[in-house]
Amino acid sequence: MRALEAFAPGKVILLGEHSVVYGEPALAGAIHQGVRARAVPAKRCSLKAPPNVSSSARALLADAFEKAARACGRPAVELSLEGELPVGMGLGSSAAASVACARVLLAAAKKAASPKAVAAVAAKMEEVFHRKASGLDHTTSAEGRLILYRRREGQGAGTVRAVKSPRPLKLLIALAGRSRSTRNAINLVEERVRRWPKRYERLFKQMGLLAVEGARAVEGGDLEALGDLLNVGHGLLSSLGVSSAAIDELVHLLRARGALGAKLTGAGGVGGAVIGLYYEPEPVIASLAREGVRCFGCQLAGPLAL
Ligand code: PMV
């Protein structure tokens, strides 16, 4: 058997993180940066952990991989992973690793690898990483495009609607503070929901509405409306308690540098990724990078410039 390889993209959530865990819709798209999995023939099905991961992360990865391997009939391959996605910053690194592993395992087991089949195997890994995961991250990675997603309680895969953009949908992605755990941020929100269910249900409903309005703004090519939705979305995430001083500072910096809208993306916490929506982010990326801000660009949807 030849070596098998598969790539899976990371993702950004435009609108609806956290509320998606509680059944509200979310809008998210795949980015160019991701994770590549490679498999070579071996005696038993295993995953070589990437270098520089802590012993606790290594144990979690091994546990997650075991679940995916079992779902694919444990083909006789050894997998390794590499990628350029920042880990633990809200850009879906664990989901991309899960999807890349799922693709290679399914190929090694000579099973069909439709986005649905890939997402089902990747879900086994994401459940280990995030416990109460909505399925948004790995579904976006497996679909590889901009989608409106809704979790279906107790039914495995959620519903997916592709969202098309008539114009280039370009973002600046910047990194604030240090990496953090998605699980902690989900637990923090869960604790508030447990104490004050009615109040947080209201907020989640609002966040879900923003995601649906966001999909409509993208489809109508109304980037100014989308920018406003991102700003409001950030306000609601702050009210859930998942933003931080470092994240807020970066959000305000991007707005001061002309963003149509800016917000945190992903679970949030002490640090994480922030997105800014621009017609043309490239000059802002160049000047912020010169000032030492960790940032890069991506296009989520719409026609690519030649
Ligand atoms: O793990 P992150 O930071 O990419 O974000 C996950 C998004 C959440 O809505 C917070 C959790 C989930 O499972 O949807």
Write the layout of secondary structure elements.
Elements: E1 4-15, E2 26-41, E3 46-48, H1 55-71, E4 77-83, H2 93-108, H3 115-130, H4 136-143, E5 147-150, E6 159-162, E7 169-176, H5 182-195, H6 197-219, H7 223-240, H8 245-256, E8 261-265, E9 272-278, H9 282-290, E10 295-301
Parallel strand pairs: 3-4
Antiparallel strand pairs: 1-2, 2-4, 2-5, 5-6, 7-9, 7-10, 8-9
Bound molecules: (3R)-3-hydroxy-3-methyl-5-(phosphonooxy)pentanoic acid.
Task: Describe the 3D structure.
With 306 residues, the protein is an alpha+beta fold. It has nine helices and ten strands. The protein has helices at 55-71, 93-108, 115-130, 136-143, 182-195, 197-219, 223-240, 245-256, 282-290; strands at residues 4-15, 26-41, 46-48, 77-83, 147-150, 159-162, 169-176, 261-265, 272-278, 295-301. Strands 1, 2, 3, 4, 5 and 6 form a six-stranded mixed β-sheet that branches. It has a four-stranded antiparallel β-sheet with strand order 8-9-7-10. Strand 3, helix 1 and strand 4 form a beta-alpha-beta unit. The structure holds (3R)-3-hydroxy-3-methyl-5-(phosphonooxy)pentanoic acid. Residues 17-18, 20-21, 90, 92, 130, 133-134, 136-137, 182, 186, 266-267 line the site of (3R)-3-hydroxy-3-methyl-5-(phosphonooxy)pentanoic acid.
